[in-house]
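In practice, a research group might receive sequence data for several interacting partners and want a quick structural hypothesis before committing to experiments. The following worked case mirrors that situation: the sequences arrive first, and a predicted assembly follows.
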Amino acid sequence: MNLMDSSHSNPMSLCSQADSQRTLYPYVTGTSVIGVKYKDGILMAADMGGSYGSTLRYKSVERMKPIGKHSLLGASGEISDFQEILHYLDELILYDNMWDDGNSLGPKEVHSYLTRVMYNRRNKFNPLWNSLVLGGVKNGQKYLGTVSMIGVHFEDNHVATGFGNHLARPILRDEWHEDLSFEDGVKLLEKCMRVLLYRDRSAVNKLQIAKITEEGVTISQPYSLKTFWGFSAFQNPTVGAEGSW
Amino acid sequence: MQRKVALKITTTLCTKNGCLDAGTIERVQSLAFLIPQAFVANTQRSLHWFLRLRSSSIFQVCVMSKAVVDVPPKGGFSFDLCRRNEMLSKKGVQTPPFRKTGTTIVGLVFQDGVILGADTRATEGPIVCDKNCEKIHYMAPNIYCCGAGTAADTEAVTDMVSSQLQLHRYHTGRESRVVTALTLLKSHLFSYQGYVQAALVLGGVDCTGPHLHTIYPHGSTDTLPFATMGSGSLAAMAVFESKYHEGLTREEGINLVSEAICSGIFNDLGSGSNVDVCVITKGHKEYLRNHQLPNPRTYVSAKGYSFPKPIEVLLTKVTPLKEKVEVIEGGDAMEE
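A structural hypothesis for the assembly, expressed as tokens:
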């Protein structure tokens, strides 16, 4: 913190010297979010866990929220920074509505706004510690994009944050195709979330699936996935060599 | 006996100037009683240390007795050169990059036995140094082992345990068991405390049934129905977790293993090239080297390479070189 103070040699009006703080590490974090494009729009899945370091502190954190009429935002990373982003977007949508000109901000515009916010915060060494997934439909055009905490942004047919990049994207690359039906899309997302549940230590078995179409946003009620632990090697791993492990 | 030896040493001690005055002699003789203690450790270095601690003037120690022996190191790594390496790296000397197998290796248990799979890329930092290396190593006729991590370590460790298993087979007259290989590997890796960077997937079928184990560089092991290791392990594990079930047939098993390795090849930068598969069943094994080649050369000229029109041969003349050069028989043989 002292470093940053000394580098601001001519204080600008907005910079308070004594108390400048910046995000050094995240505290309450959410794990991965996965999003896919399907026939009618975008499907997104995220679990409801908020971890405080290595303990699972909060088990009912909604990490996906609708933005305006046309977008859906999912976030992983620091939960307080996600709430701050929602605050900014609230203001953005409010000002947009106040124009009252029949236009509304679509997902592409919101994505662009978020990219600028994240990148500028990173340049000030005070990042919003999130990886965001933004999806939406406007005028029949589907849009799915992602922004990371340092401002890396791109759009794709399927995106994931955090551990989802390593575990879910290989599955999605193999099995995603154009014009998935709603059921197939949900099955695909559940497949990915199940692998994440097995192999990500900060995952929790309580997830929500959200869909956004031209009509609007629907976020499902929280539910759990079925898991299977009955492999015979798990029951008796030391067959043939009793006493070893 | 000890005292005799001690006294023998005392007489060869002399001060820097080379003369012994009365006071020095007394001091030296009192030391002589304490010297045998130094012999407990039995090295020249400890004798030096002992004398330095006890005496104020510098004695020139010339140890003539044969009781001092240099003890060979007891095993494990000797870290004597670490300080020098640190000093060199501070001065900018780069250590050469290790040849690693940034890798995807997998194994699964199917209804008749075990199937192992591996990619074939070996990397040296950012460079692919071997496009088609073999990562599935032979341990015994019924046991194979895939290796990830530092290539030299995986090769050496699997070779070593393979020969130990062979000797054991000669000794017992029986087929090797997978748990034998497992125990030999894990105790070796543990004694090196993780410095031998070999992460292994060991699979085989013996008289007690099919077995699949993973071994981590520090020496811990797991017994699993399906396993993946290496940098591409998450991509391969995603495929396994979503598609594995018990009682797979041979074709299903091979397909699933190939899919998992391909997932590693295409989604992980440290893995690439081709897919090797090894199927082990009771009494029979099949090593399918390059079972799949999903990375063929993309741009090949359709015409092939055509040489330009050959030059016409106008004249052929053969001159045996012996006529031009004098061959001296019985001269000096060329030094090797």
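Before designing any experiment, note the following. The mean pLDDT of chain A is 89. The helical segments of chain A are 2-7, 79-99, 107-123, 163-175, 182-199, 232-235.
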